[in-house]
Sequence to fold (241 residues):
Amino acid sequence: MPHRFIFSLRFSSKVFMKLGLLSLTLVLFMTFFRMNLYFLSVFHATPDVDVTEVFHSFLAGVRFDLLILGFVMIPVSLILLLQAFTERWPSWMFVIYRGYFMLVWFLICVLTFIDFFHFVRTGMRMRFTDYMMWTPDAWMDSLHGLQRNQIWIFSVITILLFNLGYMLIKGLRFGEWKDEFSPNTGSRLEMGLRIVIPLMLVALAARGTVTAHHLAWEHSDVSGNKAVNEMALNAVWCFDK
Fold:
């Protein structure tokens, strides 16, 4: 069939958009995690902090969350372009995409859950050295210093958000690439945009900023209160710090 490439490229854009929207939804869920962290811990520990500083912390937090999902999307976007150029769309690849995002979301939820209890006790996110010293027994001991309602609420929220993410990922349907066949054969401009725009969006998300320097710890410095600044970070970003 003539002009197969443009149809394959259009399908890659369709798959990218679905996975991109999924990523944005997971960022929203990560914001819900941060909201629970705020109301269960930071709110009570920072009664004198200006509300605008808290708002800026949440905005910075979205940038850090987008950075994580940006890195997650890097291999996906490259493989999608490879599939578009080779015009190969086997059904098992969609199983791999769903499995990849399920694993990513599971790890995000686990790290966020473990990090919560450390944050409540110390007012700081866990760093790599903290994870190296972490053991299930030490974690159980740390629970004794927390209020029971903090433990139950965050545990229920974690299970709920994990299941919501799991159902969204499991329910992803991509269709068939031949469904994109149409009389419109496309132009070079369309081809270029479908190749460049996804790469630019992923690169921007992974950098977390449009400035010369990528997103770093100083971008979380939005308040004179350390706990508010730490809240802007996330457990995954802090894992290797």
Remarks:
- The mean pLDDT is 89.
- The radius of gyration is 21 Å.
- Residues 148 and 154 are 10 Å apart (CA to CA).
- The first helix runs from residue 4 to 45.
